[in-house]
Amino acid sequence: MQAAEKKVFERPRTLKEVPFHFCPGCHHGIAHRMVAEAIDKFQLRERTIGVASVGCSVFLYDYFDVDVIEAPHGRAAAVATGVKRARNDRIVFSYQGDGDLASIGIAETIHTANRGENITIIFINNTVYGMTGGQLAPTTLLGQKTSTSPYGRDFMQDGYPIRMTEILATLEGTAFAARVAFTTPKNINMAKKAIEKAFQFQKEELGFTFVEVLSACPTNWGLSPVDSMKRVENEMIPYFPLGIFKERKAADVL
Amino acid sequence: MARIEIKQSLCKGCALCTTLCPEGLIEIGKRLNESGYFFAVFREEGTCKGCALCAKICPDVAIEVWK
Amino acid sequence: MIQSVIMAGFGGQGILLIGNMLAYAALGEGKHVTYMPAYGVEMRGGTANCTVVVSDEPIGSPIVGKPDAVIVMNLPSLKKFESWIKPEGKLFLNTSLAPADERTREDIAFYPIPANDLASQMGNARLANMILIGAYVKATGIVSQDALIDSLSKVISERNARFIPQNIEAIKLGADQVETANP
Amino acid sequence: MTEKQDLVKGNEAVAMGALDAGCRHYFGYPITPQSDIPEYLSYHLPKLGGEFVQAESEVAAINMLLGAAATGVRAMTSSSSPGISLMQEGLSYIAGSEIPIVIINMSRSGPGLGGIAPSQGDYFQAVKGGGHGDYHLLVLAPNSVQELYDLTILAFELAEKYRNPVMILGDAMIGQMKEPLLRRTPEKIVEYPKDWALTGAKGRPQRVLKSLYLKDGELTAHNWKLHQKYEAMKKDEIRYEEVFVEDAELILVAFGSAARISRTSVMMAREQGMKVGLFRPITLFPFPEPRLADFAKKDVGFFVVELNTGQMVEDVKIATAGRSVDFFGKPPGALPTPEEIFEKIREIYPG
Q1: Neighbours of A118 (CB within 10 A)
Q2: Is the Cβ–Cβ distance between A108 and D56 less than 8 Å?
Q3: Binary contact (A78, D200; C-beta < 8 A)
Q4: Residue A124 near chain B (CB below 8 Å)
């Protein structure tokens, strides 16, 4: 007799059963799923408070079945700090794009990490401002054409793409910092583990946790979803190497 | 025997799943869904191993896997 | 009954300290009181002044254009505030640092007190402010000398409590100057 | 007077009021002339199990406040004019998201870096919105150390009652002055339901606090809802103080420090037999417009005194439409003396 059929992959409980508004082939959906899976894995849904940022991911509350507060552009890390300080037994995460986190909000990002706030930031780096139509981002690659760098990013004009994970990994308050991508089955698994670890670290109160996700933006890149995935692999990863850049073993005891 | 279920209403036809399926069992179909996308379809030919790579790469969480 | 006083001098002469003492003394006697430190660029310029108003009734303005009295601890403050004093008001002048002949008003009561010299004779030049506030309280009767002495414990930290007896001595010495100083 | 009175600095009275109102969360950034507030709270909050965070900027501070208050706790920040300008973005979001917070502006002088002298140059910013969008703060203007304490406690209640940011608009004068304070700790902290607070969606549907409304008609409805709230404040929350207004032929209108100084000028005028009164708005938003309109029905002149070149005077003119309104403005530098204002009264006093 054949064993009963079992569901081996299903939508995480924390992710509402509604279609994403993201463009076809956008990696936000994959990152959303992995965050929801991490929340489910540690049974955190009922004590999680999400912080939505300004950008394509602003509708966080439409997809995550958790309490959510919306932050002004760039301020998600400060808002998350406030939430955590008021409710230190809750799990607090913000989800931010590269314009939000690495440009207008870089001060909040760095100081939140430096204070070792026990929160998790999921950082989506797709090298452009997605929601406003593909303008130059702090992470735009050299030579990359965007709607405000029509001749390609030139370091004489716009400086260099910023590597946030490396910067944050240097800070004492950071407990975990990793960069991941979804380009291969191996990378997908690594990404899932990194996001889980970030939430696990927060649960264990080890300090600030940060996961940078290299993400495709087929619409603003003008590439198909499949070609966009190749661009992440062939152009982004060489400049933004994947891996765990900081992993604290235990909470600092001073 | 494993199989997948693609929720056609969630699918946007990005085709990322078609690139990862080791057995080549997924393709973009010829029909449009309610949102106007040619959605991915599963060819039920019996060689699916239930590896779930298609589901893991799907940006729209449109795939469920049964084993 | 409402009385106002402006106290002025260099930063470090203890002007704000004696302003606070007077305010605490008034509070101790159940009076209404406001204490307003000088605020502005002067604070950064090395000078200090404050205004204290003491009254039996609720006080309106903590800022005073025509004070009943002025306590002056240095020459620049004399030049700035002498003209503000109400007709028939009182000027308490530290003549150690602001010569008596620099003053111009004849319509006010004048209390020339060589506060720094007296303090030095006591062995502690920092007591000049206490001598002046002692004289002011004696001359105006705005609060009792006992209330003023009681206020020392409010403004002097426990760490420096051992200096309180010296301060009391200086207050009394200041009070003694009133009769000799008053014309 | 009771034995419990102590001589307290205005800024410290605010901090004491916050603690006695049950506020245990403070986020701020140092700026003259209000740093006594964070200094006091950084000492006391940890001992009370609270949180004191010195943020990296005023921008971060107001957003930490947004996050903390979103969870339903009483939270506060304080700053002074340039810092308050930096907080305007956050205030707009907080008003739009209907999160109760208390913000103290011990205002100094501007524009720009301006100076540290007392000023009332932030009146427009405080009462007309300040940030982008169609919103108001509820604005309270204390004029004594006691009122700084009492109104800070009230501010927390009103913030929760209306789910709206409440601003205490003081200035360098009342923040720095010392007066006797009676610390009348409320026996019971007045609180309002927090069925909106983010605490984790345990056993209830998800809650969201946001200011983005993109669906058809949603934002229109949201703006009208906020408007209704401001109308309710106008109906129920107007506060003012009157001195000698009954028979007055000339009514001084002033708030905060300017009112405090003017009060003495009014007494001087009364001693000279002049029928002069003082009307002091305590709420600047909602502005006591109806009461001023009542006076305007009588044959009475108005004289507005402000520590600026003319801001509240516009609201007085609206409220007293048709009446003569004189103005004496004193931009930052030296504070006006009561004698100076009295001279102005004498110039314009009828007859």
Answers
A1: 24
A2: yes
A3: no
A4: no
* Partner residue opposite D67 with nearest CB, options A66, A82, A107: A82
Among partner residues C20, C39, C59, which is closest to D33 by beta-carbon distance? Answer: C39
- Interface probe with D: pick from A40, A56, A85, most Cβ of D within 10 Å: A85
CA end-to-end span of chain C, whole Å?
25
CA D31-D37-D40 angle, 5° bins: 125
State residue D290's pLDDT score: 97
**Dist CA C133 CA C126 (whole Å):** 13
CATH number of the domain that residue A66 is part of? 3.40.50.970
CB burial of D12-25 (b: ≥16 within 10 Å; e: otherwise) equals bbbbbbbbbbbbbb
Encoded amino acid at A193, one letter? K
pLDDT tens readout for residues C168-180: 999 999 999 998 7
pLDDT tens per residue, range D130-144: 999 999 999 999 999
Tell me which residue of D325, D287, D290, D332 sits closest to D309, measured CA to CA.
D332
- For helices D58-70 and D88-97, give the axis angle rounded to 10 degrees: 20
Among A110-119, C8-17, C92-101, where is mean pLDDT lowest? Answer: C8-17
**Chain A residues near residue B52 by CB distance under 8 angstroms:** 8-9
Look at the block and give the residue holding tokens 């991490």: A38
Nearest to B59 among A8, A15, A30 (CB): A30
So what's the pLDDT on residue A3?
65
Q: What is the mean pLDDT of residues D282-293?
A: 98
Please tell me the predicted confidence (pLDDT) of residue D184.
Answer: 87
Nearest CA in chain A to B18: A226
Enter the tokens of residue D283: 């709420």
A133 domain-assigned: yes
Residue for token pair 């909470």: A251
* pLDDT value at residue C104: 95
CB contact under 8 A, B12 and A25: yes
According to CATH, the superfamily of the domain at C2-181 is Pyruvate-ferredoxin oxidoreductase, PFOR, domain III (3.40.920.10)
φ, ψ of residue D31 to 5 degrees: the values are: -160, 140
Nearest to A133 by CA among A121, A150, A123, A146: A146
What is the ipTM score, two decimals?
A: 0.90
Domain of B29: which CATH number? Answer: 3.30.70.20
CA distance C135 to D168: 41
Q: In the prediction, which pLDDT does A98 show?
A: 96
B59 contact residues in A (CB cutoff 8 A): 20, 22, 24-30, 225
Q: CA-CA distance, A160 to A139, in Å (whole number)? A: 8
Whether A21 is covered by a domain: the verdict is: no
* Domain assignment of residue A129, yes or no: yes
Single out the residue of B38, B37, B52, B47 nearest to residue B5, CA to CA: B52
Every domain of chain C and the residues it spans: 2-181
